[in-house]
Amino acid sequence: MAIRGEFSSRIGFILAAAGSAVGLGNIWGFPTQVASNGGAAFVLVYLLLAFALAYPVLMAELVIGRAHRANMVDSLGKITSNPLGRLTGLCGCVTVSLILAFYAIVGGWMIAYFAESLTRPVASAALNEWFTSYSLSSNLVFCALFLSLTSYIVLGGVKAGIERWSVRLMPTLFILMLALIVYVSFQPGASEGWAAYLVPDFSRVLNPDLLIDAMGQAFFSMSLGVGTMLVYGSYMSKKEDLPSIGAAVALVDIGVAIIAGMLIIPAMYVALNNGIEIFAANGELIAGDQLIFTVLPALFDTIGPVGLIVSIVFFALMVIAAVTSSISMLEVPVAYLSESRNLPRRQSVLIVALTIFAASALIIFNFSTLFGLVITLTTKYSQPLLGFALCIFAGWVWKRNDILAELKLSTPDMEHRLFWRIWPWYVKFVCPLVILIMFFRSVV
């Protein structure tokens, strides 16, 4: 069997894991939730719940992965002799592959809009229209391009692929976001956006809908439940202090979400100042794909020649955010095939990428029926149940002394730390209960 890869540095792991967590949802979902849920009051609740809910589950994945030095299927299989462990791991591989199948379509749209912005001055009108037409041909071409880019990075393995590109892409992501924030903040209307984002409405802090929305954002923004953090944890050095490195990953993810809000919300109010509609029929701010592909491009068109540069930078930012998440998703099934099935990494990447592209093509050809359905099945049903299962494995199935022994490899005094006094019972009782409440609410 081939020697397993390992992250060569602490910063390499943090940037790779944070890149996995920092996806398109942070940039187009979090900001509008903030503005629609009491501004800074939502940010405060989100911060509290990110560490009260998401961080303990993140730690469960990291500890399981590093302890067993294996993919999701084998790691959960080693915790229990019951076949349920491997079955849960397989469900995680299938779920993350289906998520990547629709995510690759959206990632392809980001590349298409980036290409359109880049070539607009020199390309024909017909070509630029094709870039953003959402036609079968453009969807297939750019989805394939996005998966090819993701596969190229994963093909390099942990050190030469995932880590190498994460330490390049994540700083670039921050620089582009900060540059856009500075530019947007000086535009007419931006001050109203800053007020909507930062001025708290504390009367809404105890609103049940706000609490549930903040819980969901905190949990799902870190891409928990589908094995990405577990697999990345399996590539981590035994010398690393897991609680502190997990906290660093959570802080970077939270930081990117908050910084994204500093860009998106002021930009939306600049668009409103320029005569672009930013509110949906129900009075809430437009979010999701309509925000990214309708509102913001319309804004870029209203700010003259500099709008083209802003558009190029913005969609470059979106492509980077999409790729840093997709490489972690692809690595989950690739790690399973290369380790459990003893296939060479190149062959594993090819098999998984082609399978996922086939699933993406099926969604593209049946878009109105399958796109929303696959998103619902994976993110609303499968992902929370897998997160619940991981808490059960870490809190109830895996022996507590074995967990402590793993943590003491890097932190000999772990049993005397506050983390160990709280985390074991917290992930055993509190996290599963909260996840079930979230799941029940999303279903009902």
From TrEMBL:
Domain of life of the organism encoding this protein: Bacteria
Pfam families the UniProt entry points to: SNF
Main location class: membrane
InterPro entries according to UniProt: Na/ntran_symport (IPR000175), SNS_sf (IPR037272), YocR/YhdH-like (IPR047218)
Cell compartment(s), UniProt: Membrane
Keyword Cytoplasm listed: no
Keywords: Membrane, Transmembrane, Transmembrane helix, Transport
Transmembrane segments: 12-31, 43-64, 84-114, 134-155, 167-186, 214-233, 245-269, 306-337, 349-375, 381-398, 418-440
Residue ranges the record marks as coiled coil: none
Membrane topology: Multi-pass membrane protein
Signal peptide (from-to): none
Protein name according to UniProt: Sodium-dependent transporter
Keyword Cell wall biogenesis/degradation: no
Species this protein is from: Alteromonas gilva
